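Thread: quick sanity check before group meeting

JM: Hey all, I'm pulling together slides for Thursday and realized we never actually wrote out the predicted structure for the chain we discussed last week. Dropping the sequence here so it's in one place. If anyone has concerns about the input, flag it before I start.
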Amino acid sequence: MPLSFETLRNLLACPAQIANCESSDDILDRLDEAIAGSIKLRVLGAGRFPLKFGDWDRIRLGETLFAHKSMGEDWWTDYLTLAQASYDPLVMLARVSLAPFTWSEGQAMLNLIGADRCIQELCFKHGMRDGFTCPIGGRWIVSFWSPRSLSNVLSSATRAALYAAASSAAVRLEQLLDLGVGGIGDRAYLTPRELAVVRWASVGYRIQQTARALGLSVETVRTHMKKAQQKLGANTTGHAVAEAMRLRLIA
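JM (edit): ok, ran it. Output follows.
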């Protein structure tokens, strides 16, 4: 769907307007106003990922999750209750994605079945047929929703303009965010040697192979791995690797 000249002008002006906003509500309102018109989209909200994916205790409405008024409190209450009981596959996809995508595209990529469709069904219940999610810098997502299907609707130019505006919103929210609520200081600290043995384990090396690769004794490697597991709250080497990846200590 091509953008109207007015909508394109509003989106291009949006970053400068957002830069002067002093509250999350103002930021989301400016973003919503920019897309009013020819695009059947509304702002849903913006959220900052905790360091560890799935750490829902650190996702708090009004602190790290910012909701737009286009969807009522009932939606957010239902969503958070459901997401905490399981997880949102599309949010998981957004965390590892480098590009914005529609919800219908994400659902097709993941081929959701069974309980993984619960969030999708909740969206339908609240009149959201589709949406557009913009992952920003691996730490933020900004989401839009639509009462209609967006499959094969949004052009590349439209996506680029929406993503640019969403990025400016995430940047301004980050500037206004109380860094204490984001868990900045909660990342597990691994020494360079502990990180090294976990990294080698992540590519399939056993203790003996890691020892040879790093020029360390087998017992030293075991000690580093044991300490890494303790710091990461992991029970096994595989668990330690998974936790390190969730915390983005390794890739």
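AS: nice. The domain at 187-246 is CATH 1.10.10.10 (Arc Repressor Mutant, subunit A). The longest strand covers residues 42-48.
JM: adding both to the slides.
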